[in-house]
Amino acid sequence: MLTLTRPEGTQPGDLNLSRRSLGGLMFFGYAAAALSAEASPIVTPEEGLVCGPIDFTGWAPEGAYPPSLPAYVARPQGSGPFPVVIVVNEIFGLHAYIQDVCRRLARQGYAAMAPGYFARSGDPSRLTEFEPILAMVRAARHPQVMGDTAAALDWLRAQPWADADRAGITGFCWGGTVVWMAVADLPFRCGAAWYGRLVGGENAEPDRDYPADAAGRLRGPVLGLYAENDRGIPLESVETMRAALSAAGKADSEIIVYPGAQHGFHADYRATYDRAAAEDAWSRMLALFERELKAG
């Protein structure tokens, strides 16, 4: 059974198998999990929606030519304008599960866009070994990620069916950390962060803030959705984040920890999927978006 246990990806030792027995970690990653016997991915139909891939202009350092990046967009049929939600992927990139999350949000009345943050390096969802996947993730540095998120909002702002003044963001694993930082530094009304890293420390990207550092900058409420048995995000870091929110007076943000759940509990293509936790967390997220993006 393949179990993905860490926000930066499973390490060989987590599988209790040798590198040799894994054939050099062959079939590691999204593809293996999605095709495993334990997987039962949810597939949201496209009927009644307008959805598919698009290209948008991403961020580039000053003086550099901005790249064209892929994204997946799903929205209800009709003229809108609909409130928008940016969906931030896990380490495996813009794969079917992330696209399905966009369609689920579109069925709730949102224009959802999932940018291809790793496209400059390739497509990690197609890779079968851990190290190349991790290299792609590490290549997406914090300034680029925030810049691409802002560029995605700019693209949505130019669409007549989107109301980017009513913008939320959600993300999973690697993307959960992005959510906290985006609500701190970009014009989002709210966010839902699923089991994303909260503090720096070992293997952290240098010379940048992490969510616990940025709690005082949050522009709106963030709902943190975490797992009791997450080997990559210890409960101590959750308490550090709670303390940072309290010290900053951010009473409108909260963190929910699901007893017995593991990292990736919402990812229905993984063996760690926990239906009860996933459904409860999803309903909490929808309630937040309804209140902050649709009400008033």
UniProtKB/TrEMBL annotation:
Name of the protein in its database record: Dienelactone hydrolase family protein
Organism: Peiella sedimenti
GO molecular function: hydrolase activity
Top-rank taxon: Bacteria
Enzyme Commission identifier(s): 3.1.-.-
Domain annotation Dienelactone hydrolase: ranges: 70-291
Hydrolase is among the record's keywords: yes
UniProt entry tagged with the keyword Hydrolase: yes
Enzyme class: hydrolase
Keywords, sorted A to Z: Hydrolase
